[in-house]
Task: structure prediction
Amino acid sequence: MKSEGIFMNLPKSVTICEVGLRDGLQNEPAILKTEDKRKLAEKLIVAGFKVIELGSFMSPKAVPQMADTDKLFSLLGSVKEVELRALIANKKGVERAIFCGCRKVKLNVSASRKHNLANINMTPEESIAGFAEIVELASQNNIQVSGSISMPFGSPWEGNIPIESIQSIAEAYLNVGITEISLSDASGMAVPNQVYSMCLTMQQKFPQVKWWLHFHNTRGMGIANIFAAMQTGITHFDSSFAGLGGCPFVPGAAGNVSSEDMVHMLDEMGIETEIDIVKLVEVAKEIRQLVGHDTDSYILRAGRSKDLIRKE
Ligand code: ZN
Result:
């Protein structure tokens, strides 16, 4: 362990959710075979991931890349001590989850009022109030539900989002019984000091919430934002193998911080992830080959720092 971090307020361990199979692949023009996705998911589990977002239960017309999510859940079954989750948009999503054996779903609302109003003519809080029946159906069927708030750090529609708006969305989630909430910087507009202060404020105001952070590396600030969040005690982050991904609303959007860059930084700082980076790098190389183009991953490009040290 390098000693430079010894005086910093950093966690001993971090949990990473691998979102490449959902957030990454949904932005790829090529549609992978279900069998390839299954093999990738199994390799991610062997590499040590305890949380994996496998896909989404959206309309197959709107997101054809995710049309086989049900099949993927059925093929994998339940894996001991691993949470396999899916993104959903409505009640239909829970029905599909029940049918294929998915035990964890994630809802999403936009922190941008203009975006939410333009899309479905509801404020984010009204959207969440409508989630109550989804949460009820899920809990009757022993399915856990988490929530996410996209673009809390800045939106292409109104720029800065006031913290009061984010807090009122968190309250709306708590009102329907959701206590696990993700802040998702899909627009890649977050900056580290903003992340630091928002994470502190939200944890103080809502200590009962398990917070997740989800950063896109569109402007190269993803890992700096993760580092800022960690210093406030946040220990749950999403990342994407090979840095796969994008965002349909943001021109030039990059994927999430690459999982191997994230694990490499944490390994070098002595922060436990339980993920084997050598195995992870192998899976990341494989997905890069399957999508057929280069991706944003420093570790795939340069290797680990450790690999650079010459052995006599
Ligand atoms: Zn995302």
User: Anything to note?
Assistant: The longest helix spans residues 277-291. Residues 23, 184, 186, 214, 216, 256 surround zinc ion (CB under 6 Å). The chain has 14 helices and eight strands.
